[in-house]
Amino acid sequence: MEEVVKGIADINGVLDIMWILIAGALVFFMQAGFTLVETGFTRSKNTINIIMKNLMDFCIGSVGFWLIGYALMYGDDISSFIGTPSLFFNDAGEMHNLFFQTVFCATAATIVSGAIAERTKFTTYLVFSLLMTVLIYPISGHWVWQGDGWLTDLGFIDFAGSTVVHSVGGWAALVAAAMVGPRIGKYTNGKSNAIPGHSILFGALGVFILWIGWYGFNGGSELAISGDSAAHVSNIIITTNLAGAAGGLAAMFFTWIKYGKPDASMTLNGVLAGLVGVTAGCAAVDNFGAMAIGIICGIIVVLSIEFVDKKLKVDDPVGAVSVHGVCGAIGTLCVGLFATDGGLFYGGGFGQLGAQAAGVFGIGLWAIVASFIVLFILKKTMGLRVSEKEEIEGLDIHEHGMEAYPDFRLNEH
C-alpha cells in the first residue's frame, strides 16, 4: 500500500512539473503576440527594431533572471523587502520554476517596448530591459509571491500578476513614454494626431496569440494540475476566457456608441484589458465576477487610452499604459470587490479591498520611482531618443541596417 501511495505521489509530481513547463511554453509564446501587436500598431519602417526589442527582452531576461533576478525575488527574505542575493541559480529540483518565472519576467519587460516604440535608442532600451529583469520586477515580485513579503503579510491577492507583472510593466511604460517624448508629428498646436499602424492584421493575430498564452499565464500559476488542482486550473481558464471575451464585447459596444462605429483596435485592446484585469483574481472570483471585471476593464481601457493621449499628452502607440498599467490596477482592486471569499460584494467587508489598494499603490509607486531613476540616469548618460533624421527615416535602417519590407524591384537585374 505504501508503494502505491508513493507511486501516485511520484506520478502527480511529474504531472505538476509537466503542466508548469507546458504553461511556461505558452507564456513564452506571448512574446510572439507582443511582437505582432506592437509591429501592427506602428509603422512599417520600425518593424525590425520592434522585433529585436522583443527578442532581446527574452534573451536578456533569461540570462539576467537566472544570474540574479530569481534569487532577489525568491531568495530567503530580508526585512520583507528583498530576497537574499546569490548568483547563478542552480537548484536542480527547481528548474521548472526558474523557467516559469523567467517567462513572466520577460513579459513585464516587454510591456515597455510598445509604449516607447518608433523613437527610442536600441542600446538604451537594452540596458533598461536588463535593469527591469534583475532589479525592478524581482523586488516588487518578492513582496507578493516569495511568501514572506510585506504584501503577503497584508493578505494582498494577485494570483497571476495583474499588478506584479502587468502594472509594473505599465507604470514603467508610462514613465518611459513621458520621458522619451512623443513621436514627431503626434501633437501639433495641442491637438493629438493619429499615426496609424501599418497592419491591423498583425495586431489582431498578436491578440489571439496573447489570448492563447494567457491560459498558461493564469492556469500555470496554480503551479500544479494533479488532484484538486485539475478543477482549479479548469476554473481559472474559464474565468480568464470569460473576462477576455467580456472585455472585447464591452470595448466594441462602447466604441460603437461613442464613435458611431465599432473600433477594431480598441476592441482588440478591450480583450487584452479584460485578460489583464482578471489575472489577479482568476482563482478568487466566480464566472459572474470574471464577466464583471472584463466589462469594467473593457470600458475603462477606451477611456484611459483617450485620457493618456489627449489629456496627459503621452504618446503610447499601442495603449500599453492603459491596458497593462491602468487595467492591471483596476483588476487587482476588483479582487476586493468580487472575490467569493472576502470580497465586498460577497459579504466580506472592506478588509480585502484595503489590502488590494495597498498593493496597487505600493507596487505602482515602486515601479514609477525606480523606472524614473533608471531612465533619468540613462537619459543623462546614453540618451533615450534617436535623432530626428533617424526617426523620420525609420529605426530599421539606422539602428539595424536593413528593412523589413524591402522593395524587391531594386534587386532586379
TrEMBL record:
GO molecular function, one term: ammonium channel activity
Transmembrane portions of the chain: 17-37, 58-75, 95-117, 124-145, 157-180, 200-217, 229-254, 266-284, 290-308, 320-339, 359-378
Keywords per UniProt: Ammonia transport, Membrane, Transmembrane, Transmembrane helix, Transport
InterPro entries, alphabetized: Ammonium/urea_transptr, Ammonium_transpt, Ammonium_transpt_CS, NH4_transpt_AmtB-like_dom
Major place of residence: membrane
Keyword Plastid recorded: no
Protein localization: Cell membrane; Membrane
UniProt membrane topology term: Multi-pass membrane protein
Domain Ammonium transporter AmtB-like: 18-405
Pfam family, any one: Ammonium_transp
Family: Belongs to the ammonia transporter channel (TC 1.A.11.2) family.
Protein's UniProt name: Ammonium transporter
